[in-house]
Write a structure and sequence with these properties.
This protein is α+β, with helices and mostly antiparallel strands. The chain has three domains: 6-309, no CATH class; 316-428, no CATH class; 436-493, Orthogonal Bundle (Arc Repressor Mutant, subunit A), CATH 1.10.10. 38% of the residues lie in helices and 19% in strands. Strands 1, 2, 6, 7, 10, 11, 12, 13 and 14 form a nine-stranded mixed beta sheet that branches. The two termini are 52 Å apart.
């Protein structure tokens, strides 16, 4: 895409941005305990003694979380580290249970990975609006436990703690500072969400907090190579908000610099209602957290066989599926990108397009079908129109059984009744008229009723052919074959 530059009266500026994305691991139990990870259960229902940080309780690593992390790393084209370690990250939040009952006082910690993460460098190729692609480098991915949730809106004077989320397994994916525009960050998040959903390692639901993003932003004068002080926006929970946060924070930096000030490295919060950021705290550094190896968990050592078995489980991911849809099914790059973004949509399309004109199926899918789902506020899993029936509808069009116009009417009936389109057409007498003599009779009637227009056409106003076609289609209640109507009209009009 073209360069994204913020231009002011004093000069041109470039955005430098990196992301840290927390993805909740799909697993029935938490990363270090057997407590449930079910979302939406009653407050503090899914809490074990381990999750609550009770004295003497020891963590036990959930193998499924390790399995999901490796699968995700492979999907990110990343190095899987056969040796990794867990560490304690020491800091205090009220909703961080570990260490809160120590005699030394409220010194909490989080079990995470620091020096030796389970996944090393990788990359994701993103699709940009202008049709170009860009490679975004991934620095690392580590696994860790989530904290609980503070609740501030129950009582005007008190805060409450829900520990249902405490101990849920997270994958933290850290990118290089490769983003130069808000749109690039948005494209990356959409692609990452698509990948983890394909893999079944995270549901990518940002509304429920199972995918959250920390946004690191700095700016520099356009054309320079320096890296200036960055600030971090914590827990931004939608793609739209991430893009807005980048733009807002970048402009704040520029204003500070152009007024002779300096940017302090700090953690900030993005407010989507005001499209602005406010300071939360001065930015901590690694040494502030006093990382040290987790004494209750041994190093994680993976065998080649274990990693290779997970490799063998990998399915076709969005980029590979997109390439196949373009090369084998003849889709445009844009159509393939839209369809492949969601696995359920791609699977639906492939089933509907099997043995048919894939481009026509794609047109119906991205047009009337998507519009129907939006109108009814449904997702594709709950669609009243099955993939099989959508494919049958396209067959009826391609075989000239019904016209495109009638097909739209049939589709609306399908959307309301879930009926087979072949049955709808048969029951309602909607088959296209292809009998030449029957069509000629309608044409003759139209020409006889409109002598002035016939004369105008023969006098050189050939654009009237469209009007004549419309009249014939109207008289035949849309059942006449439009191609045949056009051909016969031209023959009769001369």
């Amino acid at each position: 895409m073209s360069e994204y530059i913020i231009e002011t009266e004093k000069g041109k500026w470039e955005i430098i941005c990196g992301l840290e994305i927390h993805c909740q691991i799909i697993s029935k139990s938490k990363i270090f305990s057997g407590a449930s990870t079910e979302f939406g259960d009653d407050v503090n229902e899914n809490v074990s003694f381990v999750d609550a940080g009770m004295p003497g309780m020891l963590p036990t690593l959930n193998t499924e979380c390790v399995h999901q992390a490796i699968k995700t790393g492979l999907g990110l084209n990343a190095v899987i580290n056969k040796y990794s370690e867990f560490s304690r990250k020491n800091y205090f939040y009220a909703d961080l249970p570990q260490g809160l009952r120590q005699s030394s006082g409220p010194q909490g910690y989080q079990i995470t990975q620091f020096l030796y993460p389970i996944v090393g460098e990788g990359y994701i190729d993103i699709d940009l609006p202008d049709g170009e692609s860009k490679r975004i480098r991934i620095e690392r991915m580590h696994i860790e436990q989530d904290a609980g949730k503070s609740i501030h809106d129950i009582d005007p004077h008190k805060s409450f703690i829900d520990l249902n989320r405490a101990g849920v397994g997270l994958m933290e994916i850290v990118t290089k500072p490769d983003f130069r525009a808000p749109e690039e960050a948005g494209a990356f998040l959409r692609k990452l969400r698509s990948i983890v959903r394909y893999l079944g390692t995270c549901d990518g639901n940002m509304d429920e907090g199972s995918m959250r993003c920390d946004v690191n932003v700095s700016v520099r004068p356009y054309g320079t190579d320096e890296l200036r002080t960055r600030c971090e926006m914590k827990n931004v929970n939608s793609v739209k908000f991430v893009m807005q946060a980048i733009e807002s924070e970048a402009r704040r930096h520029i204003e500070v610099y152009e007024n002779g000030g300096e940017i302090c490295q700090e953690t900030r919060q993005f407010d989507p209602t005001t499209l602005s950021t406010k300071v939360m705290r001065k930015k901590e550094f690694a040494h502030d957290y006093r990382y040290f190896p987790e004494p209750d968990l041994p190093p994680l050592v993976l065998s080649d066989d274990f990693i290779n078995k997970i490799k063998d489980e990998l399915i076709e991911l969005p980029d590979a599926k997109k390439s196949r849809f373009i090369s084998q099914l003849g889709l445009t790059p844009y159509d393939a990108m839209v369809i492949c973004e969601n696995k359920e949509t791609a699977d639906f399309f492939e089933k509907a397009a099997n043995g048919r004109d894939a481009k026509k199926v794609a047109n119906w899918l991205m047009g009337d079908f998507f519009a129907m789902l939006k109108r009814k506020n449904l997702d594709i899993a709950n669609s009243p129109v099955s993939a099989e029936n959508l494919g049958k509808l396209v067959d009826l069009i391609c075989k000239d059984v019904i016209s495109g116009k009638i097909a739209k009417d049939v589709f609306e009936i399908m959307a309301e009744t879930s009926e087979d389109p072949e049955i709808i057409v048969e029951k309602r007498g909607l088959k296209q008229v292809t009998d030449t003599s029957a069509i000629e009779a309608v044409i003759d009637a139209v020409l006889a009723a409109n002598p002035d227009n016939v004369a105008s056409y023969r006098g050189g106003k050939t654009a009237l052919i469209g009007w004549f076609v419309g009249q014939v289609m109207k008289q035949s209640q849309g059942k006449a074959n439009p191609g045949l109507v056009n051909k016969l009209l031209k023959e009769k009009l001369g």
